[in-house]
Amino acid sequence: MKEDTRIVHAGRHPARFHGAVNTPVYRCSTILSENVAELKEKVRNKFDMVDYGRLGTPSTMDLEAAVAELEGGARAIATSSGLAAIAGCLTGLLSAGDHLLMTDSAYFPTRKFCDEVLARFGVETTYYDPLIGAGIADLMRDNTKVVFTEAPGSLTFEMQDIPAIAEAAHARGALVAIDNTWATPLFFKPFDHGVDVSIHAGTKYIVGHSDAMVGLIVCKTPELFTRIKSTTSAFGYSLSGDDAFLALRGLRTMKVRLEHHQRAALEIAQWLEARPDVTRVLYPALPSDPGHAIWKRDFTGASGLMGVELAPAGENNITAMNAFLDALKLFGLGFSWGGFESLAIPATGAIQRTATTFRAEGPVVRLHIGLEDIDDLKADLDQAFAAYRAAAG
What we know:
Elements: H1 3-9, H2 36-44, H3 58-71, E1 75-79, H4 82-93, E2 99-103, H5 108-118, E3 124-128, E4 144-150, H6 162-171, E5 175-179, H7 184-187, E6 197-201, E7 215-219, H8 222-235, H9 241-252, H10 254-273, E8 278-282, H11 292-298, E9 305-310, H12 317-327, E10 332-333, E11 343-346, E12 364-368, H13 374-392
Parallel strand pairs: 2-3, 2-4, 4-5, 5-6, 10-11
Antiparallel strand pairs: 1-7, 6-7, 8-9, 9-12, 11-12
Helix pairs in contact: 3-9, 4-5, 4-8, 12-13
């Protein structure tokens, strides 16, 4: 099946639900069995059968099956948020005394989890330059168990050479995980590029409507699934039937939504790049972006999230950035992204680095380009730039 067809049909079983097109919402904790033999069978096969609500229901299992099929993995695990998926993956693969290599451009809550939780559990984290590529071999140790990647990087959008990193990691016996939220299962196929575990904040494009928190861990092999699922179930991670339903509903239209996000984002990125108010646009789909060659080689599309470095305003950088953001009418000021609406947040002050330095003379903002009319979004940005210039002095 072509991807347009697969995204409509993956994880759907109408015959099981009286012909219903969508998997119904299962709100349940207790699952009854007809007899002791059936009860014991469910316990033995608790990751494959509906045994207890926390371990999975038809709602969550169909979501997991659909995302695993789209991404080409063996099985997936649904959690209550993207951060829960990251935490579940890392705790499932790491033990006390292990070493983790984490990209320096990672999502900040990922960094916080490594520094405050994994460190307390005896796991050492080394942050590495996201542009290191095959050079990551020099950072590998005998106890390095996982190399964590994110492409493009959070807030700063560096592209990583995932195949080169994976080859070096596997040569030393380490596993490779990726936060693939930006590209979704549609625009990057991690398992075709050497990745072992792919993680998604399904809250973003999979749900697509800013109304549910969802995380997903997609595993390349059944063995990795069992290893991580055993940990996530021990921690009590689960996803409600209602949120699984919203994620499945969003998944069915993700491709058509992403086509608009991509088209609009690229047009706006090119428009921004040509403005004197802008120093650079951080968006790998732009030919001028330093990571464009890798993006073009490995990815089949780009989503609607980008960074923008505004022209320097000297000592008024923060004041002018705030004026720009406050002036926006169609771009809401709020965290998260991937929904139908356009969003903006300040990135200056939020970019955390320890292994590398991110340099920007002007303030940096992050934009998510939603599904609004492109000309309307340009007009909104244009009047915000007028406020920026006025505040910059």
